[in-house]
Amino acid sequence: MSSAVVVGASGGIGRALVAALAAGGMNEPVFALSRAQVSQPEPVRSLSVDITDEASIAAAAQAVGTAGPVGLVLVASGLLHGPDIAPEKAIRALDPAAMTRVFAVNAIGPALVAKHFLPLMPRTERGVFAALSARVGSIGDNRLGGWYAYRASKAALNQILRTLAVETARSHPGLIVVGLHPGTVRTALSHPFRPQAGTPGVFTPDASAAHLLRVVSGLQSRDSGQTFAWDGQPIPP
Question: Name one GO cellular component term (predicted).
Answer without folding.
Answer: cytoplasm
